[in-house]
Amino acid sequence: MHYTRVPNESSTTRKIRISMKVAGAVTIVIIWANYCLKHSKMIKTANTFMLMNTKMVYTNEINKSWKKYSVFYILVFLHLILNAGNLYTSYLSYQERFDIRMLTNVFDFVICLHILQYAIILGIIRIKFEELRLKLSELSNDYGIERYVTFVTVKKNNTTLLKVSTIRQGYAVLLDVCDDVSKFYGSSILFSLTYAFGVTVYYSYYALTHSMISAEKSWIDTIDAILPLISVVIAVTAICILANNVTDQMLKFPDVINKLLDVRFFQREIKTELEIFSYQVSHKKIMFQACSLFSIDCGLLRSVSNNNYPILH
């Protein structure tokens, strides 16, 4: 029996299906070329991040942050299972033999995995920003009680100056890492997201057509219609949420810095360091972007609707 990917497939839907395969193949090539051309720079950026990471000590609050994101990592694992199940059901749908049309499922798997990889990197960056913010907040809490003997205050000021300087430098490194990551993944994520939005529409149509129109229904075909849609939605949702969370963490820094500037026991050197930090936070914004054309900060929809394409400056 001849199996068609879409029940009662018309010439138009057939052209759309073939176009999606071509788009998937082009996206895969771009992802592969992106890794090959930027591999050495990626390693350098990763080493820079790890070097900065060794200077910072995790707090108990950060461990709680990882627990909060445990649901996300479970979704990543489930996403891999969904894609594996999707490949298997496609194999069954094509009468338990390899069919060139199964390449569409392979393309979906690789592209969704690429999007999730970027989402995980955003999650790590988000947690590092939160760690720096919490460490900065701890400094203001240390000076909450204004009962200090002079020599104790001087000693604490020296320690505080070192901590503020380290946190500020760590923040600057994270901004550079964000900039590099945005450039590394810019073109490939642009094509991956465009492809993902396209297949979301396509699979939604396929699922509705199969459930409402198709006369020959089976549980295998039903699963084969729904699994790809779920996996793509999970990947796109993850990257939008985590990109937005990174921006939210950065927006919390000014309030913490202003609170520290109000501490009257700080030496002039600490005040100066905090003022530099405040200037750095207010004048160097990070917006995750693709080729400086398409923002994937979760101003994603706002950027598209308002034709606003912010860049790192």
From TrEMBL:
Entry keyword annotation includes Nucleotide-binding: no
Recorded topology in the membrane: Multi-pass membrane protein
Source superkingdom: Eukaryota
Main localization category: membrane
Entry keywords, A to Z: Cell membrane, Membrane, Receptor, Transducer, Transmembrane, Transmembrane helix
Segments crossing the lipid bilayer: 18-37, 71-94, 106-125, 184-205, 225-243
Subcellular location, record wording: Cell membrane
One GO CC term on file: plasma membrane
GO BP: sensory perception of taste; signal transduction
Function: Gustatory receptor which mediates acceptance or avoidance behavior, depending on its substrates.
Similarity section: Belongs to the insect chemoreceptor superfamily. Gustatory receptor (GR) family.
Name of protein: Gustatory receptor
Organism, scientific name: Cotesia glomerata (Lepidopteran parasitic wasp)
